[in-house]
Predict the 3D structure of the following.
Amino acid sequence: MLVIFVRTLIIFLVLVVVMRLMGKRQIGEMQPFEFIITLIIADLACIPMADLSIPLIYGIAAVLALFLLHQLFTVIEQSGNLPKKILSGTPSVVINKNGVDMNELKKNNLGLDDLIESMRSQGYFSLDDLDYAIFESNGKLSAFENPERRDAPSSMPILIVDNGKLQVKNIKVLQDEEENVKRFIIDSGATPKTTEVLTVDGNGRAYFKKKNEKFVIARYPLKEGVKW
């Protein structure tokens, strides 16, 4: 029991020193290679603490090797734009003056739901609340607010069309039929397949974006009494 306690204490102290030397970034601010190294270090540190058959020095050596690898990658990343792009990626502008950029979302394996969730965490609920939204290379969303942004909405916009696909579950919230949604889209000069985004809030305010065109704000004809 005492041996395990001492081994754990030593590994803990080594990890504290190594993590301090790696810098002060929070988990959400780490670059991909930093996050991977941190996960491996955490896994390796547990092995010599629990398995007395493994010499303690092996665990310490593995942690120090990963620390040196981290330092090497950091130096390479800072040596120029190309290495930085390869190791850490580049920021992606997912909302611009024309609206949501579906191509940028696809490049980052993201969907509209992911974008909307990230916006909500920063207090933005409608896609036109922002002039620009940028997913940084560490996965964090940076938002540039639309100077003409409305006050906080009285009801939550829901996603009706996601990249050409009708969201049947959300259409039920409208207490409407798919055919009525399709008619609204056709009257707006598009088809469901050429519609990248359609959201509707409880007041009937619709964010509508046709493929390769600037978004527009329209009025969706909600049934009387329908609100959420």
About this structure: Strands lie at 92-96, 99-100, 130-135, 141-145, 158-162, 165-166, 195-200, 205-210, 216-219.
